[in-house]
Write a structure and sequence with these properties.
Blueprint (H helix, E strand, L loop, with lengths): L9 E5 L3 H13 L2 E5 L11 E4 L1 H8 L4 H5 L7 E6 L4 E6 H8 L4 E4 H9 L7 E2 L5 E4 L9 E5 L2 E5 L1 E4 L6 H6 L7 E13 L8 E4 L3 E7 L4 E9 L10 H9 L6 H7 L6 E7 L8 E2 L2 E3 L14 H14 L7 H30 L4 H16 L3 H4 L2 H4 L19 H11 L5
Helix pairs in contact: 1-5, 1-9, 2-9, 9-10
């Protein structure tokens, strides 16, 4: 049960994905009263698994969750990049990666991470079957609250967090003239299956206009993902397993065994889209954007969820309840726009490598990957500027918060809404 008094500033988070829940936990720990609105009937996440790199694990450390996630790391020993026939282009090692970046790479089911985050919220914080619309982004200079419309009535908020995904209605409301996410030319598949009988090294394998990845999970299952050049909106008439068999059934082991164990009901297919240019800011009024609502990117760096977690921690860092919301949100945009724009562009460059279908271009790409793999540490070094990020509040506990400090401000806002002088 949330024990915040009524005078506590109120944050409404639209969307209960990884970014939305992380923001809810971070804001709650900073002293906000938080409501999470989710249109789905339950917290069952969309997606199979998520890869968390050291940058997001450090962010989760500020919520005292990092070590819980690190304990789920399953990658041990060697792994790397292969061709469709199985030839190694570049090898990496779990221990070398952990030593370089100060922690492991953890692949875990999205449902596990959702459960961990939700367990840190007071009962009643998350409201499912609650679609929400941003009716008013709010104003800070004139103290107008943000307003969110739901089927059960309007909610006024001191802060709204738009964490409603790639098709964000909050982003469209804040910046209606900004272009929608564009198709990258690649579609993706994701699935969870039991581990094959024969041991394997974790790998990502690149072919002509196609990619396959196989990663172990701590619970004994395998997370597999694939992408390929395809028309936007296409679906397989005979099921996605049949489509994957056509595209990847003759690739190296353990891919055929994984496809044998898969079934259509467990295969997710989505077109890969991204924003080709960032919005002018990640906030307007009292409303902020984060995660895919702010910067949808290709999954080629495995950073979509990681950047959403970073967003959430930085947002809460800049918004202790006693700080002016306009200054905090401006600082949040200033912090996050340059970094996420750089990550989106890097992910797009890697995606373009995956769309190569002409044999000469594929041979050149593979030769460059082999050359990079031959230089010790070069493959890992290319990830330095992403994985070495640290949160601005790293290792700092949430500040002590006295709700009485905000009572006068709350009374002032109430008087202003009634038309009285503040």
């Amino acid at each position: 049960m949330d024990t915040h008094p009524p005078s506590t500033p109120h944050a409404v988070v639209i969307g209960s994905g990884i970014g939305g829940l992380t923001a809810a936990v971070a804001l709650h720990r900073r002293g906000w009263r938080v409501t999470v609105l989710e249109r789905a009937a339950s917290l069952r996440p969309v997606g199979a698994a998520i890869s968390l790199a050291p940058n997001s694990l450090r962010a989760l450390d500020t919520l005292v969750l990092g070590d819980d996630v690190r304990a789920l790391a399953a990658w041990q020993g060697d792994g790397g990049l292969r061709t469709a026939r199985g030839r190694w282009l570049a090898r990496t090692n779990a221990r070398a990666a952990a030593e370089r970046f100060g922690g492991p790479l953890v692949v875990l089911p999205r449902a596990t991470l959702v459960d961990l985050l939700a367990s840190r919220l007071p009962d009643g914080t998350v409201r499912c079957a609650a679609p929400a619309t941003l009716a008013e982004p709010g104003g800070t200079a004139d103290r107008r609250p943000a307003v969110v419309t739901t089927p059960h009535g309007d909610l006024e908020a001191d802060l709204v967090v738009g964490a409603d995904g790639i098709n964000s209605a909050v982003r469209a409301a804040l910046f209606p003239a900004h272009p929608a996410p564009a198709y990258t030319g690649l579609t993706s598949w994701r699935l969870l299956v039991p581990a094959p009988a024969r041991p394997f090294h974790p790998h990502e394998s690149w072919g002509r206009g196609a990619l396959w990845g196989t990663q172990p999970l701590k619970d004994g299952r395998i997370y597999a993902y694939a992408s390929a050049v395809a028309p936007a909106g296409a679906k397989a008439p005979d099921g996605e397993r049949a489509e994957l068999l056509r595209r990847f059934g003759d690739w190296h082991d353990p891919i055929p065994a994984i496809l044998t164990a898969a079934d259509d009901d467990g295969i997710l297919r989505h077109d890969i889209r991204h924003l080709t240019a960032p919005p002018p800011a990640f906030h307007r009024g009292r409303t902020a954007l984060l995660g895919d609502a702010a910067h949808p990117m290709a999954p080629t760096l495995g950073q979509g969820g990681n950047q959403a977690i970073e967003d959430a921690i930085v947002l809460a860092h800049h918004l202790p309840p006693r700080r002016a919301t306009d200054a905090g949100l401006a600082a949040y945009s200033a912090d996050r726009l340059p970094r996420t724009t750089a990550v989106v562009r890097t992910a797009a460059r890697v995606a373009r490598l995956h769309t190569r279908t002409a044999a000469p271009a594929v041979l050149l790409r593979d030769a460059l990957m082999t050359l990079a793999g031959a230089v010790p540490g070069l493959a890992l070094r290319s990830f330095d500027s992403i994985a070495d990020w640290r949160p601005p509040c790293h290792a700092e506990p949430a500040p002590a918060y006295d709700h009485r400090d905000d009572r006068q401000d709350s009374q002032d806002r109430h008087a202003h809404r009634q038309g009285d002088p503040p």
